[in-house]
Every structure is written in structure tokens, then in C-alpha cells.
Amino acid sequence: MKINGIIVKGIGGFYYVKTEDKNIYECKARGIFRKDNIVPAVGDRVLIDAKENGTGVVDSIFERKNYLIRPPVANIDLAVIVFSFTKPEPNLQLLDRFLVTVEKNEIQACVCINKLDLITDSEKKDELFATYRNAGYDIIFTSTKTKEGISELKKLLMNRISIFAGPSGVGKSSLLNEVQHGFQLRTGDISEKVERGKHTTRHVELLDLDFGGSVLDTPGFTSLEISDIEEEEIAYYFPEFVPHIEKCRFKGCRHLHEPQCEIKNKVALNEIAASRYESYVAMLKEIEEQRRHKYD
After folding, report:
1. Which of 168, 189, 217 is the last residue of a domain?
2. pLDDT tens digit sequence for 12-51
3. Taking a C-beta distance cutoff of 8 angstroms, is the pair 56, 50 a contact?
4. Do 47 and 106 fall within a single domain?
5. Do 84 and 136 belong together in one domain?
6. How many separate domains does the chain show?
7. How far apart are CA 165 and CA 100, in angstroms?
8. What pLDDT is recorded for position 198?
9. Would you state the pLDDT for residue 69?
10. Interior/surface letters 277-288, b for 16+ CB within 10 angstroms, e for the rest
């Protein structure tokens, strides 16, 4: 029996496909995918050959609207990038790497800053992340202790496929448990010595929300590869750069040492945050280094 579904989990070469009638089939993928170097991903919409015993075979994968390599997920409507005010301290260059990855894949992003209960200076809260609001991103401040921001977060997730991503220890699983109490996801503690979260999520899984939509809980990680981004395109993944790029004196300006660069001018005028520009420069140099090693 041929039936459409969506991959909600993948473990050890088995793909768990939820169909329109809410049944879940344990499936293997046809060998043709390996031949074509295609790996099915959680979030893929697929056609399966379903058997009466609850197993099946993934026959085909429908066209993806987007795809993230790490973690491997497809067809995302919204990326909720979770960081915390403290424990661990926010690494803004890492946040920028997440956002660049999301921009490249044309996924709407929301920056969720968790552990609001640990900050006493509300002005510091707004000052620290005003840069991202000015760049056009939605910012949500949350606390699983005080429940602040939870209803706002639920409204954002409604009727969408969303991904929760961010470094370990920022409270992603705790937030998901608060959004949907039935999840009962394992939460980790923080090593007091290094203030780094222990990895608690071991696989990617698509989880249904009672109020509509679903979320992808993903393994914690602390770095993102940007090797598939070209030097000339990375500036376009900083939304606040985009209106000014074509105003540079030189076509193909890399916004480093070129004279009359509009991006550098906006940084000097504090119209583009220096921290965002520094992230851009660091990523551009990393891409250049990777390209040199590739051809060595």
C-alpha cells in the first residue's frame, strides 16, 4: 500500500514515518538513495510502501524546501535559536553562526534568550540583544522558572514545523517540556567547573504539539560548519548588511580593506553593530582558509 507521510525520527538506518492517519511505520530506505547519495532526513515528506505489520519502505522523497546538514533536518518553517543569559554565558559569535546557517537556508529565525530569571538588570537584557532586534530578528525572553515568555513562544510555534537549536546547557529541552508538558524530555545539568551543558538529546525527533504544529528537538552542539558558503555570498546572510552592499564603491567589495566601503562606514557610524561585523570578518577568513587548504 502506497501512502504519504513524514519522517519523524531516524535511528540506526530505520526511519519512522507518520502517515496522515497518524500511524507510524518503521521503514528502511531503498538502495537507490545511497546510489544517488541522498540520505533521508527527519522532516522529509515521503511516499512509503507500507505493510500490514507496521513496517515499510521509503520509496521516494518529495522536494525539500530547505535542508540543514548538521543536524540533518528538512522542511523547516521556523528556527528557534536558544541561548541563555548566563550559565553558560552567551557566545554571540556562535549565535551569529547559527543565524548565518538559517539565513542561507531561507528559514525564518527567532532568537530565544532563556533563563530570564537569572538576570536582575532589565536594561542589560535589552541592551545585550538590541543588536539582533535591530537586524530584524524576533527576540523572545523566556524563563521556565517564572514562565515568562512561554505563551509568546507557543504562539510563534503554532501550526509550523520548528527547530529548536543552540548550544548545550541553555535549556532547550526544559523549554520544550514547558511548551508541551507531555514531552517529558530529559534535561541535563550544567558542569559548575566549565559551565558547559552535558549533551542530553541523542537523536533528532519531530514532536507534535497539541495546539498545532511540531518541533524538532536536536542534539546539542557547539559549532557549525560554514564550508558550503561562498566568500562572495556570506555578507548577504547578515540582513542589516543587505541594504548597503550595492552602495560600496567597488563591485564585489569584501568589506575588509577596500576604500569607500559602505558596510565599514555604517559600522563606524554605529548603524551596524561592531560585534556583527567582527563575526562577519571571522567567518569570511575561515572560509578563505578552508578554500586555501582545499587547493593545497
Report:
1. 217
2. 889 999 998 889 999 999 888 877 888 899 999 999 999 9
3. yes
4. no
5. yes
6. 3
7. 13
8. 44
9. 76
10. bebbeebbebbe
